[in-house]
């Protein structure tokens, strides 16, 4: 009992000293010193941490300093100021790389574009951009979309609808995007979206890796590195996930080599592995080492599956809350799509889908309110003065919060929390383009997402096909907030258990591990019913 009292007193003393330090830091500084947040604040508001950060950023005019624990390197300057974003992402880009810590956290991606900086990044950028911008990929994309809808999505929804079943739409969309992205990268459809909803090793390994990456953002680096070294807890799961991903990538390469041995001239097909193995001009007509091929394929799998899957889930949830917007999308489809009158067919023609301006606005609204990548972190090389007047030292961590940016009254006006696709339609009825330092969902500057157009086309094809055939209803009994609370409770349980025992194995089944990913805090966990 005495020991317990001492432990509690020690914790209270640490929290008091920590808060005092933060108070002293925030007082007596020049007027433009940012508002300071503390660790106790983060714990108190953990179940709504993104909203709390948004409130702090509103109060601090778009800049907010989070003080972490002493000597752990967890202090963060968080900003939503568009001028700061422009300086960090574009004007002084070379001074704000992702940094070596990011590379260690995301080590599953190896040296892929997403995970590199400076000259190495430039080199990978050339490969990935050339592939994603190749005209042959654009020609092949509608065929991939048609295939995954015909073989995966529609049969599954037809089955669910006829049997009157409930379905987790997020699971459906993630499986769909896994199949689409895998086809784009390897030429093979893994068929993860089929009526049986069988567990797919590829998805499971990606989920495990994503959850580990998420925990690595919270836990001190020394702690998870020790776990990795000892081969215990979540790091053990990560090692096994990496091995699974390596094996899957290796198998696809072997299958593609075999296919190419038989015939090289299938003009109908275009995929990343084919380009790598035939030294195609789409990847610079060069022979790249195996590791580049592996890292590019694995990295793009993550980039293409989770983001687009989460964005589609949120879009359907928002449409269920805004039936008028859904009717407007249907009206637009009737007016602009040539195939919509036919009962039993649809087309994924990119030209036709590009005419859907209102749907484009609805997708942008969903990405503004629920960005699948809710924040991005950069590390300063040299000290710098931000346009907001805040000075940053070298090796400082800066967080750009896309989630908070989408909810700032100063950027989007008083109605910033409302879902209004009209916001993205110009007076002449065309698409209204917002600058990327204001709409940060796809990042900004030289590191802007190279898959943006592809993602829009895929999402439009999926939404058009679903709305053409079905009405999606969110089941009322599972409210979003209740589920998110559940998520945070499970998360705290996992983290605490890991701190105390070094392992979350005992609570693995039914804990957060199977249901969360890196973009996790914006996931819905909702159940949907088609009818
Ligand atoms: C709704 C869908 C998507 C969203 C919201 C999204 C968002 C983002 C964001 C915010 C970043 C910057 C991340 C950072 O720097 O920390 C990024 C980078 C990237 N995205 Fe996407 N993305 C989407 C879909 C895709 C797709 C379909 C692909 C390709 C298959 C893709 C490929 C990439 C790549 C390669 C990068 C790294 C770029 C670089 O570091 O230079 N993304 N994406």
Explained architecture:
- This protein has 531 residues and is an alpha+beta fold.
- It has a single domain (75-522), classed as Cytochrome P450 (Cytochrome p450, Orthogonal Bundle), CATH 1.10.630.
- Helices cover 56% and strands 6% of the residues.
- The protein has 20 helices and ten strands.
- The strands form three sheets. It has a five-stranded mixed sheet with strand order 1-2-3-8-5, with helices on both faces. Strands 4-10-9 form a three-stranded antiparallel sheet. A two-stranded antiparallel sheet has the order 6-7.
- Strand 6 (384-385) and strand 7 (391-392) form a beta hairpin.
- Helix 8 (169-186) packs antiparallel against helix 13, helix 9 packs across helix 11 and helix 14 packs antiparallel against helix 16 (357-369).
- It starts with a helix and ends with a strand.
- The protein binds protoporphyrin IX containing FE (HEM).
- Protoporphyrin IX containing FE is lined by residues 113-114, 125, 128, 181, 300, 303-304, 307-308, 311, 367, 372-373, 376, 441-443, 447, 449-451, 454-455.
């Amino acid at each position: 009992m005495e020991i317990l009292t001492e432990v509690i007193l020690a914790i209270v003393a640490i929290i008091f000293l920590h808060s005092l330090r933060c108070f002293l830091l925030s007082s007596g500084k020049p007027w433009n010193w940012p508002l300071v947040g503390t660790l106790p604040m983060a714990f108190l508001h953990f179940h709504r941490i993104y909203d709390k950060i948004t409130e702090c950023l509103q109060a601090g005019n778009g800049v907010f300093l989070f003080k972490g624990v002493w000597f752990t390197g967890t202090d963060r300057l968080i900003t939503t100021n568009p001028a700061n974003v422009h300086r960090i992402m574009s004007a002084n880009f070379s001074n704000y790389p992702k940094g070596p810590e990011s590379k260690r956290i995301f080590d599953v991606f190896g040296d892929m574009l997403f995970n590199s900086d400076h000259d190495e990044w430039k080199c990978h950028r050339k490969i990935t951009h050339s592939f994603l911008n190749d005209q042959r990929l654009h020609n092949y994309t509608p065929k991939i979309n048609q295939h995954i809808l015909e073989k995966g999505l529609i049969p599954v929804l037809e089955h669910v609808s006829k049997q009157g079943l409930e379905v987790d739409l997020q699971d459906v969309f993630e499986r769909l995007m896994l199949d689409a992205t895998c086809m784009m990268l390897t030429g093979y459809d893994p068929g993860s979206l089929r009526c049986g909803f069988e567990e797919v090793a590829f998805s499971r390994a990606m989920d495990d890796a994503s959850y580990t990456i998420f925990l690595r953002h919270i836990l001190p680096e020394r702690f998870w590195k020790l776990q990795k070294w000892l081969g215990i807890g979540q790091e053990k799961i990560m090692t096994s996930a990496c091995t699974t991903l390596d094996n899957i990538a290796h198998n696809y390469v072997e299958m593609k080599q075999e296919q190419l041995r038989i015939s090289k001239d299938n003009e109908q097909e275009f995929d990343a592995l084919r380009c790598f193995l035939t030294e195609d001009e789409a990847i610079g007509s060069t022979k790249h080492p195996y590791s580049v091929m592996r890292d590019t394929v694995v990295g793009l799998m993550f980039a293409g599956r989770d983001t687009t899957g989460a964005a589609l889930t949120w879009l359907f949830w928002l449409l269920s809350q805004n039936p008028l917007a859904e009717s407007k999308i249907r009206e637009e489809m009737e007016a602009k799509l040539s195939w919509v009158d036919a009962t039993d067919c649809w087309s994924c023609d990119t030209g036709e889908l590009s005419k859907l301006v209102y749907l484009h606005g609805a997708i942008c609204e969903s990405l503004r309110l629920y960005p699948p990548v809710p924040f991005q972190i950069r590390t300063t090389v040299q000290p710098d003065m931000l346009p907001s007047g805040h000075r940053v030292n070298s090796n400082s961590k800066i967080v750009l919060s896309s989630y908070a940016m989408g909810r700032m009254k100063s950027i989007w006006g008083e109605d910033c929390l409302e879902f209004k696709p009209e916001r993205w339609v110009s007076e002449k009825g065309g698409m209204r383009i917002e600058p990327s330092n204001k709409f940060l969902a796809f990042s900004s500057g030289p590191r802007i997402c190279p898959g943006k157009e592809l993602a829009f086309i895929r999402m439009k094809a999926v939404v058009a096909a679903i709305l053409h055939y079905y009405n999606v209803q969110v089941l009322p009994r599972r409210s979003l907030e209740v589920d998110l609370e559940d998520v945070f409770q499970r998360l705290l349980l996992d983290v605490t258990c890991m701190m105390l025992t070094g392992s979350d194995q005992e609570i693995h089944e039914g804990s957060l591990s199977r249901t969360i990913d890196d973009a996790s805090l914006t996931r819905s966990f909702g159940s949907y019913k088609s009818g």
